[in-house]
Amino acid sequence: MASELAPALPIAPPTLSISRGMVRRRGKVGVIASILVILLATTIGGLWLIPWQQSVIGTGEVIIFDPMQRPQNIEAQIPARLVDWFVQEGDTVKKGEKIAQIEDIDSKFLDPDQAKRVAQQRQTLQARLKAAQNRSKSLQNQIVALTSSQSAAVPTADERRKQAGDRLQAAQQVVISATQSLNVAQQVASQAADERLRQAEERIRQAEQTVIAAEENARIETLNLTRIDSLTNKGLRSEREREQAQNSQKRTATEVERAKQSLEIAKRDAKVGSLEQGRAKLQVTSAQADLARAGATLQEVRRGTNVGDLDFDKVKADTAATISGAQASLSSVDETIASINNELLKLEIDSGNLDRRRAQQFVLAPSAGRVVRLMKAGAGETVKSGDVLAVLAPNTQEQMVELFVTDNDAPFIFGGAPVRLQFAGWPALQWVGLGPAAAQGTFAGRVKLVDAIDDGKNRYRVIIEPDYKAIERGEEPAWPTPNNRKPGEALTLRPGAEASGWIMLNRVSLGFELWRQLNSFPPSINPKLIKDKSGSDKQDGLSESDDKEEKKPKRKINIK
Predict the structure, then answer these.
(1) According to CATH, what is the number of the domain 48-66+396-551?
(2) Distance (Å, rounded) from C-alpha 114 to C-alpha 102?
(3) Are 471 and 478 in contact (CB under 8 A)?
(4) pLDDT in tens, 326-337
(5) Would you identify the CATH topology of the domain 72-109+358-391?
(6) How many other CB atoms are found less than 10 A from the CB of residue 291?
(7) Beta bridge mates, 509
(8) Residues of the chain with pLDDT under 50
(9) Which residues does 196 contact at the CB level (< 8 Å), separation at least 6?
């Protein structure tokens, strides 16, 4: 338009044209500069004021966190031959429901009457056990009786031994008394009798001498009387002298008689002494006989004492041997009982193994779920112990997501951090950096734990669970897991489905994020945000909220 109006303008002088051109150029430059300044200010303001949500992106899949609810391989417990299938792929089964029947092919369990024979063996062993127990009770009673008998027999034998000892002491005293009596008879009575006999013999000799002297005096007096008679008759002596001679002759005759009487008395005393000496010898002989009898009695009593000692030892040894024999028999019976109990225990184990083996011929569902795949063909196929027969997907109640992040991002992830998830098959739109408010079709989650080690490829596994609190408050939709499936809804989240996740970190300005990206700096983490969201500063393992949730039952989200 400027070119169309230019010819109509008056031609100015050259100086004036130049100044006007400069003014125009200055005006355009000013406008452009103003625009640039405004744009620069707007850009700087936007970089400073526009928020940016830092996040870590990870990919993974849906998993079943509870190991008891994960897909299970149903294996054959025994080597067998497949007989029949009771289910087909896709069938829903209950826990304990029969899936297949197999026939045992182990040679140890082929006998159809094996259970009956095991029962017969058990009855036989129980009868043997009862007999052995009765024998044990009998031996115990016998040992008690033998112990009582020993308690009575041993003291009795000991008493007999003591009595024999008393008799021995009495016999020894008798021997001592007999010895003393013999000594008395030999040393006192015999010597006294001998002395009295010697005295009597001495008196006899004295009496004989007296008799001889008296007879000699009598003979002399008789001769003197005869001489005096003759002299008197001759008148040589007087009558008086003859009377005196006669008196003297009579006196001497009397003395002779007296001396003879004394001699006779002395002889009788000697005879009595001789008798007393004989009696003393008889006493000595009797004392010797008594001593001999006492010695014989002592020997007999001593032998009786020895017999009593031997009898005591014999009674003690016999009773101890009898009790020991009974105890040995009891030990043998107890050993037999233990052996029978051991055999019964082994038989019970064999019986239990047989029953368990028979029960294992029916393959049962370990949990309620759906039969995913049958791994073996029809009847007649042989399987080994541990072969997989079928794959069962249990009815799961809780599902989680495992994401894999690089080793550069793993240090910034903490337990309880918020996560936005996108599942394969669910259309979603997630504006990176704008936060959950700008997300469409994504689901809320929380970091449950971060593995402490990598997977061998410098990647770390992060387990994501549903954000139960936000779902309960109605701020976020529930995950499309089987337990949250609405009536008539066909879509459901299955294990193994691909999942993408954005793990939210700190909220910064757009300018700071650009500056960080240009300088390849790591994301920033607000420690206060970590404490607010996870309840602790730890990054690996469970957060405090997770610990609390583990102590209480898992919550189920019911969508009305």
Answers:
(1) 2.40.30.170
(2) 18
(3) yes
(4) 788 878 888 888
(5) OB fold (Dihydrolipoamide Acetyltransferase, E2P) (2.40.50)
(6) 20
(7) 51
(8) 1-6, 8-9, 11-12, 16, 433, 437-438, 490, 532-560
(9) 272, 273, 276, 277
